[in-house]
Amino acid sequence: MVNRKRTQRLYREEGLSVRKRRGRKRATGTRAPLLTLAVPNARWSVDFVHDQFADGRRFRVLNVVDDVTDLAPV
Fold this sequence. Notes:
By secondary structure, this protein is of the alpha+beta class. Helices cover 15% and strands 24% of the residues. The radius of gyration is 26 Å and the shape is elongated. The protein starts with a helix and ends in an 8-residue tail after the last strand.
């Protein structure tokens, strides 16, 4: 890996143009929270869960949950 300042100096000595590094893109404006309807089947969450049996075999499960009718433990 070559130092950025060294690369720029070499480019300048050879008369080449150095590409400018772009800055980080920033969000414009303010964010508004997503409106969710409190009715069944309006919004779903999907997630993969993986684990391993005692004998070393692995398995994956796809969890699909309705966010409104989810019965969370109390």
